[in-house]
Amino acid sequence: MTASLPRRRSRFWLYAPFILLAVAAAAWSVFWFTVQGRVVEAVDKALAREAQQGRNWSCGDRSVAGFPFRIELRCASLALTSSRWGEAVRIETGPAVALGQVYTPGLVILQVTGPLKARLPQERLLDMGWGRFEASLTHDGSEPQRLSLVLAEPNATLTAPGQAAESWRAAAFEAHLRRSPTRPAAEQAVDIAISTKNSVLPALNAILGTTDPGDVSIEAVVTQADAFRGGFNPDTLEAWRSASGQIEVTKLSSVKGPARVEAAGRLLLEQTRR
User: Which residue, 33, 100, 186, 249, is the most exposed by fewest CB within 10 angstroms?
Assistant: First the structure.
């Protein structure tokens, strides 16, 4: 009687998890580099559109990193030159990075290192610094839906030939914009919320007679806001006026020492631009 040999077990299931992991890693790498290429292409197109509007952006030593879960667009320095309205305006900052998570493609976070230096018309110079600068943009793939800007310990100095320098500083500054979820689409309404904490403006101190820091909070709705897609300039301002755009201030609160101001109302431009 011949003894039967034991059946050799397949080792496929022993190596299968490692094979699947390698395949998944390779597929994810292809996906990430595809997304990276699309991001670079989208950025280049956006810069080209900005150039057509007279705004030229420069990203020093641009690089894209962040593998495997993020897309990081880094600039050793960031600069904007605009010469559309007479004298050229140039703004320069330190390093900047735009971050996006692969699994949340509708959210972009921007971090910028100071200082910011700007050359403005009439030979004015603006120097600005901060402890932290962070902005976030939420979009649906074609249209921005929400924009937030947070500055910790901002400070700024404006100088002009023959004039005393003007300065401002605060403990914090925040600005938030979003497409209004309650207004009809035809109004093209944007909700705005702006606030500053412990703001110090020497020019205002002289008027109010107090050196106490102040807090300001503004909540408003801007209608026909799409007129400002091309930036804030005389043409877009006139387009906004012609479209019957207005600013509906729902809350304005300012507290500085013993002085307190609260207001609400509507602002618009009439035909005489007043």
Answer: 186
